[in-house]
Amino acid sequence: MRIAWNRGAHSPRSLGPLSLIGLLFVAVSIRIDFIARSQELRNRAAQTLSLFGTVLLTAILIAVPGQATEALGAELTALAVIAGGGLAVLDRRAKADASTQAIRKTLELITPTTIVSILLLASGVLLVFGVHGGLYVLIVPVLVTLTGGVTSAWPFLTKITE
Questions:
Q1: Would you give the DSSP letter of residue 130?
Q2: Contact 38, 97 (CB under 8 A)
Q3: DSSP 60-116
Q4: What are the Cα distances from residue 93, in Å, to 40, 45, 55, 77, 86?
Q5: What are phi and psi of 68, to 5 degrees?
Q6: CA 162, CA 160: separation in Å to the nearest integer?
Q7: Residue 129 in 3-state DSSP?
Q8: pLDDT per position as a tens digit, 60-99
Q9: Is the Cα torsion angle 116, 110, 148, 40 positive or negative in sign?
Q10: Torsions phi, psi of 31, nearest 5?
Q11: Cα(145)–Cα(17) distance, integer angstroms
Q12: CA–CA separation, 101 vs 127, rounded Å?
């Protein structure tokens, strides 16, 4: 049995996504009255939260000590399918009720839901088949998710108009 990651049981790697989730909550809380009126903005905020949650769950899965590469791959594959499906539903719901906010097009363009789901799935499948390089593939969706999530959270704070 090949060990996917031997970091130990106590890894601080999941703290970054937690702080970004906090940033999103602050941004949404400040503009809650406008976001609550728009189904699109609520779904876009949920997409951003889901992206941060996906990175958090990925960090937790990687931090499990002594886990086989194939087991980590199966977990990441399941996460990719669940997250990808949820993000697709939120995207469809957001597009169904377009708001008049200027932020609308920006959020639609910068939310990296499809690319993150595909790359997370690719990483998981590679690990399922014992290709240790799947961990390197995993770097890309994590970076894209964090970048896309931060660039999605910022407009919630600055671009929503009355």
A1: T
A2: yes
A3: HHHHSTT-BHHHHHHHHHHHHHHHHHHHHHHHHHHHHT--S-THHHHHHHH--HHHH
A4: 7, 12, 23, 24, 11
A5: -65, 150
A6: 7
A7: coil
A8: 899 888 889 999 999 999 999 999 999 999 988 888 876 6
A9: negative
A10: -110, 25
A11: 10
A12: 42
Q: Take residue 136 and report the two structure tokens written for it.
A: 């390197």
Which two tokens mark 118? 């595909």
Residues counted in the chain: 162
Residue 143 contacts by C-beta under 8 Å, 6 or more apart in sequence?
none
Digit-coded pLDDT (tens) for 122-141:
999 999 999 989 999 999 99
Q: How far is CA 64 from CA 61, 115, 136, in A?
A: 6, 25, 17
Q: What angle do the packed helices 134-158 and 103-110 form, to 10 degrees?
A: 170
CA–CA distance, 143 with 23 (Å, rounded to integer): 17
To which residue do tokens 């690719």 refer? Answer: 122
- Bridge partners (DSSP) of residue 68 are 3
